[in-house]
Design brief:
Blueprint lengths: L4 H10 L17 H28 L7 H26 L8 H20 L9 H36 L1
Pathway: Phospholipid metabolism; phosphatidylserine biosynthesis
GO biological process, one term: phosphatidylserine biosynthetic process
Family: Belongs to the phosphatidyl serine synthase family.
Length: 166
């Protein structure tokens, strides 16, 4: 039985934390090109989700302090934690063959928001041409792939250097 308030508060907070933290290795050396594709896809979906927040506020002219904006941001954050973990497990664990439900819900909600923006934002965003948007998406994909590829290359080079010493 926990008697003091500090102990009860600590016990309450620990109810929502994992029992133990596993180390994460995002840079697996199995297939560099597959890992670049996976991390690019991962970062693209999170960029889409972040851009949806700002475009939703702009198109529907919501105040930053509006309760729906705050609720949507909190919901996205709460959904992102298990979605990232499931995506990480899917990428690194060869025994897992399917993406987790939280990751699918995150992807579906991001795409649903994107379609709502597409439908209601036509008059606001009609100055942008499709080719301009496609160009920006291609530039983002190229830069994300380039930076992830460089990071994996440098990490593998360090790993091989350490292996040679041992």
């Amino acid at each position: 039985m926990i008697k003091d308030t500090k102990g009860k508060l600590k016990r309450f907070v620990l109810q929502f934390s994992p029992e133990h933290l596993d180390p994460s290795n995002w840079f697996s050396t199995d297939s560099v090109f597959l890992r670049i594709f996976q991390l690019t896809l991962f970062s693209t979906f999170f960029h889409i989700s972040e851009l949806n927040t700002f475009f939703l506020k702009h198109i529907f002219e919501l105040n930053t302090k509006h309760w729906m904006v705050i609720l949507r941001c909190n919901y996205s954050i709460a959904l992102a934690f298990p979605a990232v973990r499931q995506f990480y497990e899917y990428m690194t664990n060869p025994r897992i063959k399917n993406l987790g439900i939280y990751s699918w819900v995150f992807v579906i909600l991001s795409m649903l928001e994107l379609f709502v923006l597409w439908k209601h934002g036509n008059q606001v965003l009609q100055d942008f041409t499709f080719y301009m948007l496609l160009g920006w998406l291609c530039v983002q994909a190229v830069f994300c792939s380039l930076f992830i590829g460089i990071t994996i290359y440098v990490k593998n080079k360090k790993f091989q250097h350490i292996k040679k010493k041992a």
